[in-house]
């Protein structure tokens, strides 16, 4: 009876949140294949214009890595009608902000302006697509910028290469095996023609989605979109290669020495399914259960109560084709990384053996409900989510329906998914060590 009451309570809560957070949008295609999504929100006099391109580091050649991330920088260099070095000046002088980011699967650009500057934003993004200037000056400049970023964010940052090392061992065939920032040697030896060819192949209107979100007048916005994006020539359809990985059936053991650290870290990583699968969402639940917040199982046990770990965590990094489920810990005092792994495995076995409690289950529902609300609490978040769900998930309606998935996940399903993916013979065990230190027994 108690469980039934909790389920009913959750259903009622879901109804209220889903109604309050429903995101209205309109979508259509231009003749050149560009998909357009409009979300009207007049609550604040701002508007975001964003374009997400279906190109990431996984679309690169193995001997020419780093191109997708390089273009995130290169396409701010200027266009035929925006002089080199003027992009950021134009944005800031008109009260706006802009940025871009790259993942293994996509590249995303956006501007946030006062709503009376929407036409300017649309023109600038169309310029990036229609008239980019890709010359040797820009390539040389951004090559130096990328090297500095790699040095500060990866090479000289404590624990900065963990994800890269994990990817190298979890993937042997899929392009996820290399880092998003890529190889500096590949970028150094790339020709100007290589960069121009990459732009021609991937930066086309039919390989992108345009999102306008915020305070705007629909009729005029559509006219501007047609005026600036409509004339852009359609590109060749990008043929996505399919890469598959054989299942991991025995533990992979690896060691990496980081000269920037003094405390060793244990990493247990599992290859998991695409973010488009239901199992990926369940793995998000398991991550939150284990290490999200001070009351989570691993944190409370190992950091708070037993004080065996300085830091402990579980994260599910889901991507378009595969994901990585990563557990990690830093030992405290006389405790070893082997001690931490033993305690981590004990908690995983509990999830695989017993149902999580009703209290913990309700806590997870509350956490993901709050996350859903926060992700859609401003036009910037809504714009990116609309683009992401359309381009990567193939289901734009997830922006309103994903919360229903959260509430349909059961305690039994959490146990089943843990049994399916989080087994010792399916993982990488990485000893991430200070220079010259040997793995702890």
Which fold name corresponds to the CATH topology of the largest domain? Cytochrome Bc1 Complex, Chain A, domain 1
Return the string of H and E elements. HEEEHHEEHHHHHEHEEHHEEHHHHHE
Largest sheet composition: 6 strands, mixed
What is the spatial order of strands in the main beta sheet? 1-2-6-3-5-4
Which features would summarize this protein structure in a list?
alpha+beta; globular; 441 residues; Cytochrome Bc1 Complex, Chain A, domain 1; 19% strand; 2 domains; disordered N terminus; 16 helices; five-stranded mixed β-sheet
Overview of this protein structure:
The chain is 46% helix and 19% strand. The protein is of the alpha+beta class and 441 residues long. It has two domains: 209 residues, Metalloenzyme, LuxS/M16 peptidase-like (Cytochrome Bc1 Complex, Chain A, domain 1, 2-Layer Sandwich); 183 residues, Cytochrome Bc1 Complex, Chain A, domain 1 (2-Layer Sandwich). The strands form two sheets. It has a six-stranded mixed beta sheet with strand order 1-2-6-3-5-4, sandwiched between helices. It is globular. It starts with a helix and ends in a 7-residue tail after the last strand. The N terminus is likely disordered.
